[in-house]
Amino acid sequence: MSLSTYLCRLTYLTTRTHIANAHSASSRARDMEWRTVAVIVLVVSLCFFIVPIKVGPDKTVEDAKLFADYIARYNKTYRNDSTEYKERFDNFQKSLRHIERLNGLRSSQESAYYGLTEFSDLSEDEFLQQTLLPDLSLRGQKHTTASYYHQHSVNSVDRMKRMIGIPSKFDWRDRGVVGPVVNQESCGACWAFSTIGVAESMYAIRNGTLYSFSVQEMIDCMPGNYGCQGGDICSLLSWLLASKTKIISENDYPLTRRTDLCRLSKITAKTSGIKITDFTCDSFIDAETELLTLLTHGPVAAAVNAISWQNYLGGVIQYHCDGSFNSLNHAIQIVGYDMRASIPHYIIKNSWGSSFGDKGYIYIAVGKNLCGIANQVSSLDVI
């Protein structure tokens, strides 16, 4: 029984009781009886026109149970802090509703799907400030007038010719030249992780052996005090090429995930390493087929907008990921593509650990500059 129906019946029965009492009252109460009858007629009439009110289940209790499991799973530390607990629970509930909306928009089984991640108790602004680089687009803007920057454009005829000339699927992981997924944690050095990851792959393609090179060297030694507070791919590559700085192995300069004093002068003389011999920092917004061609040369590093990845679990991102240059806030590696798939997509290696996404990987549909993936792309060569 709906709430409106119940109220109507209750009002009707109550009013009947009033009538019965009114009949047994004195004549002075007869005027009240007529007023009561009028009320009955009005209530019964309204009952025919009222839209039933459906009272949905209270999700707060269910959400609280999910939140308790979430706290245990991700070992969150605010269980006994009532103020922070409430704030995190509010963020968690917003994430749950957002997850429901996004999953409700999936167009196929291959579409991106969303669920709880270690970031689900953060507000969107906290996620941006703590995990991403809010000023990355400003850092990247200066490169659009540099001599090494190119804006690619391909018309539809050239696009078809280029598509015929490249494999329909290309994944550098299958060739054993892509290193393991790493976790940057609270260090905002995605720009260094992505660049060095590509350098490792290019060295392996050239020499047949996959080595781990030092991300920490980039964090500590890149001029401008970028460190864990943020930098950008093109600035790093420009410095490495111009200064002829040697990138040494991770064993010789281990990862600490914090910004320390540069120790390169104390280490370089004793160690070998690799150097950047050439690089690009280009836009492929209107030429993603050229980007696919570039990927057959080797993995690339790219700036992206990752704000919508907060609750990503897997599948191909097709919608709801702004591609504008001003929205860029993260750096990743593109290690391949699959044009055979029902949703053609890029294969993205992220730096948030192997427990995020699909074992650390994300998939983005080809062709619409989704998440800004074609705005600023860098390839490189090493020796």
From TrEMBL:
Domain of life: Eukaryota
Any one GO MF annotation of this record: cysteine-type peptidase activity
Peptidase C1A papain C-terminal domain span: 166-381
GO biological process: one example: proteolysis
Keyword Protease recorded: yes
Pfam family, one: Peptidase_C1
Gene3D superfamilies noted in UniProt: Cysteine proteinases
Residue ranges of every copy of the Cathepsin propeptide inhibitor domain listed in the record: 67-127
Species assigned in the record: Pogonomyrmex barbatus
Entry keyword annotation includes Disulfide bond: yes
Signal peptide from the UniProt entry: none
Keywords, alphabetical: Disulfide bond, Hydrolase, Membrane, Protease, Thiol protease, Transmembrane, Transmembrane helix, Zymogen
Protein name: Cathepsin O-like isoform X1
TM regions (residue ranges): 34-53
UniProt record similarity statement: Belongs to the peptidase C1 family.
Lineage: Eukaryota, Metazoa, Ecdysozoa, Arthropoda, Hexapoda
